Amino acid sequence: MTQHPPPRHPQRIGNELDLPALNDGPSPILSVDRALRVLACLADFDTDGEPLGVIAARLGEDKASVHRSLNALKYRFFATQDAQTGKYSLGPAALGIADIFITRNGMRPMLHRALLTICTEIDETAHAAIPEGRFVRYIDKVEPDRDMRVSSYIGARYPMRNTALGRAMLSVDCNTPEELLRVTGDENAELWPRISEARARGYAVEHEENEPGITCVAVPVIYAGRTVAAVSVSAPSSRMVGKLDTIGLSIRDALANELTDGFTMPEPSLSSPRR
User: Fold this and answer.
1) Which residues belong to any copy of the IclR-ED domain (predicted)?
2) Which of 42, 102, 151, 218 could bridge across to 164 with cysteines, CB 3.0–4.6 Å?
3) Domains in the chain with CATH codes
């Protein structure tokens, strides 16, 4: 029996996902391979999508071939096209496949148990999110029983650079400012120091950058060497003063008790005081 090396986890080159392959040889069916690369490219776009020319240029393919792939993806709802602008974006079928994967590998119930523990202990809203191109998407949340709490909804999508959830993921997946720029497309000089701080502490922070009056703390979850999710606590900033380290440790403790085989957290490079 032929022995194949284990598949690589997706890496990034420029703004496109470099999809894992079974070996270094050519794909058995190039048209299918092209469609999969187009699908990965669509995951990097915001909800407005991009036109055919941009997609073809990013993939280094001719427009006619990419157009055929997009038509095939549209037929099965893996891609959608805006009738007015002609731009293409990720379709609902792709999200459905992702949801099945998250559920079957046990990640969703595992994260939900952690959210319940975090919300009970801290009495603030706890979220779980997954990476989606340059964005994060909420897949679960648990809310406290109190009048004033963070308003959010499952399925919401936000840029990685503006959220603690996204910064937690970037702290694992980006080791240099150049990698961070390639992944986020953000030239803000203040972003890299925040990612470095997140790596040092073991949790990321976002203070009123995504939503006025709200502060968020998040911890990444790793599988096969890459970030597959992150868990956060979001609350009115007035209730987070002086508590960031305690909350970061609480999230890590809850995850440590729930993470199953293969799922891990990065170890902080800078020790934080225990509660």
Assistant:
1) 93-265
2) 218
3) 11-96 (1.10.10.10), 105-264 (3.30.450.40)
